[in-house]
Amino acid sequence: MRWNVSAAVVCLVLVLSGCANPLDRPSSSAKVPTGCGECTAEVADLVAELTSSDAVLDVRGTRRTTTGSGFLGIGVDLDGDDVVSADLDALFDGVAETAWRSGVTPLDTLSVSGVLRNGYAETVAYDFGADRAAFEKRWGARPKGSDWTPVPDEADESDGLVGCEVDGCHDLFRGVARDASALPGVTAVLSSAYARDTPTNASSADVDVESDGTVAVDDLAEQVAEIVWRSTISPIDAISVTVETPDGGFPDDVTFQIDPDHGRDHERLQEMWGPRPVG
């Protein structure tokens, strides 16, 4: 499974200091194999190999943990101009395959935070442990001696989840980013991702755009929100649009509450744009 993660920019900045594993599972009694532990030498070898590849311009940082499972986070600058022209699947999968073939073990989850030349940022997580057979089919077995943290036999953690809650809908969000890139006044789309419902925050579609200042912030945010509204991204209770302007000030955040039962903007937006294609 690949998971497209919200707050990609934050995750990239914090990859060395504790950005959460987007595929964290509840603690289990399964013992994490010792493997190479912090894998300092193995991670250094992986960074060297990535840096020498044509697809990676630079490795910004790494984070290794073995609490609950073997996790590795990597922040990279990727050889792509923007979300419209770059082959993001190939770029991210190239980093993931290199990590898969590395000596880092156990490697149950890999999180790749990538940035393109125009600043577009995205984080994709690879659940190697749970989907081991699928990745072995794609890339062959991991190096001899690789360890795995046992996956609990309990019910799949995705049970009860629907739509973008399951996999983040990264393809749909990339589509939103590409459409938003074509809007007048948008010089770049910096991120486009899903945020799950939590005890403190409603589920949302989060889009961050850079503006040339020729279109009013509220108008531009509404145009971006319309793209999300007309998509099949679901479930979402809110659309959050961040607009960064050329004056160098703090970005403007505009949130549209679209929950059919309680969202203050739902009725107005439905009158403007018609019903959403999904509930």
TrEMBL record:
The region annotated as signal peptide is 1-22
Q: Do the record's keywords include Signal? A: yes
**Which UniProt keywords are present, listed alphabetically?**
Signal
The protein's name in its UniProt record:
LppX_LprAFG lipoprotein
Question: What is the organism of origin for this protein?
Answer: Nocardioides zeicaulis
